[in-house]
# Entry
Amino acid sequence: MSIQQSDVLYTAVATAHNGRDGRVATDDGSLDVVVNPPKAMGGSGSGTNPEQLFAAGYSACFQGALGVVARQEDVDVSGSTVTAEVGIGRNDDGFGIIVRISATIPQVDPATARDLIAKAHQVCPYSKATRGNITVDLAV
# Structure
């Protein structure tokens, strides 16, 4: 289900200069980074890359969704971490990405952790945005 423009609470604005081999900056100046293709893709690897930026955003968003679900379930997830691994490779359309989300939740048993991760995947805005478009594997 999509949201309407009138429901938007915040809009992030970032501008790229020279695509994957240049610079990306937000309009408020809080992010201003050099982007370069990774060495594995023939680049210099001297800056960050879009996949790293996506992994950072997805892991932070997913961690937030985990917190929401945990509060609803009355489960303590303090000390938890979420790691997003974003892979890029060739597919039938040129290039595509694949994601692996792994969470460490020290206060809960593995079955509860798997349940929380599955529920977080249902409410995380990044998960919703990518659902049906890319493979996202979940791990505890």
Summary: The chain is about 30% helix and 30% strand. The first strand starts at residue 14 and ends at 17. The chain has a mean pLDDT of 95.
